[in-house]
Specification:
The structure is a homodimer of 235-residue chains. Chain A is an alpha+beta fold. Helices cover 40% and strands 22% of the residues of chain A. In chain A, β4 (69-74) and β5 (80-86) form a beta hairpin. Chain B binds a DNA duplex (30 and 30 nucleotides) through α6.
Amino acid sequence: MPASMPLTRAAPPSGPPARHCASVSAASAGLEALLRQFPLQRHGLRRKQYLFRAGQPCRALFLVHAGCFKTCVLSEDGREKITGFHLRGDLLGADSLDLPVHACDAIALDVSDAWELPVWMLQGQLAGVLHQVTLTLAADLRRDWQWMLALGTLGAEQRVALFLLDLAARLQARGFSPRQMLLRMTRAELGNFLSLQLETVTRALGRLSASGLIRVNGREIRINDAEGLRRLLER
Amino acid sequence: MPASMPLTRAAPPSGPPARHCASVSAASAGLEALLRQFPLQRHGLRRKQYLFRAGQPCRALFLVHAGCFKTCVLSEDGREKITGFHLRGDLLGADSLDLPVHACDAIALDVSDAWELPVWMLQGQLAGVLHQVTLTLAADLRRDWQWMLALGTLGAEQRVALFLLDLAARLQARGFSPRQMLLRMTRAELGNFLSLQLETVTRALGRLSASGLIRVNGREIRINDAEGLRRLLER
DNA sequence: CGGTGGTTTGAATCCGTTCAAGAACCGTGG
DNA sequence: CCACGGTTCTTGAACGGATTCAAACCACCG
């Protein structure tokens, strides 16, 4: 196996920062720029550590500064659903802005760093930040809709292909390579997010690999033919 | 078929307005109260009419005042997904607050009435309203997560049961009967929302009906045993 | 009336799940 | 360094629930 790759690690991007597409990034980028001048508390986390838990009082939002997080909701009877994977620039915790407690868990999938943004700060002079938060909420909502659409209309192989394309685009927007990536999540977590069993994820990756569109080596994935992946999603 | 029932129709609720649960309603109720004093333009719509379309410039948000709407997103290759059904008090259009154009279609499923809330109003003295909008966005996001969880972990019968329970609760929160309801959407629309085929919806309703938990007569549904429906969802 | 859109029902098929087993990988401690 | 236990990943085979395709039915409306 090759030496460690940066990707979602703390190492700064080599290329220029986000430039195009994702409105999520656009809003979040604005957020990060706005906050850079304020002295915020930083939270360094290791794998599997919780940034916050559902039910805990939510006194702050968190901006992912490095690493990778998953957020997941839990039903009373123990069913769990991962609602998203989050990279640098993503905002966590805004979903429970109208609640006294967090509505989901946020768990580091890797060595990660998050900036704490106390809610009382949003009330005061940082109303601009609150507005930014509103915009990221809207963008998050639309992103969820896109995944709902995908999960409701695409087969297993297509879902996995879409996930890889989406992740590649997000990595590229952060200055990383859009072709070579190292997944931070297990097959089970990926399956949970895509509403598939982990075995199905494995098989889908296997088939994509067999058709030459990607190369798979455990969690290390190389996209050989992004256009081919996109073509899989049509119709 | 019996005479027309009120339910989501324009007729005012007989009982008291929303009182308990749904945080969505809580936030929206606040919104409606806030706006009642302002002279807003009203839009009366008939079945299948568009309140707004994806791609249209979004100059305003809309508060559902009467009737029932569906919102749906569309992929380039024609796949469609209904993201929600909306009753009185629900806010439409906030999802594209950070965009110049709407991101979804909003279509009346029934004779409906919506209040137009121009975005420029939100900038000025109505900052309080904007804050309310933020809160409803957060609540919407969580609601989406709940449905993602449901669609990813529940079978067809369970999804339909959950939908009926959810709709019943929302109707009750608006002063209507939580036992007797008239669906405003087709089996196909329901199936689309629940990520099922329309035939599957029909069969699921049939099975729930056969087990005595509900009574089905076309779009007219009576919940005989809400607790039994809830029991279906456990585990 | 015929036509249209919506619903129901049946039968065959298919895709993803489930269950089971084994392989590969990882961090840890002897 | 290697042995170890636990986690993660892969692969196979059988199963099952939802889909697909087809047909008939119904209510409503022009």
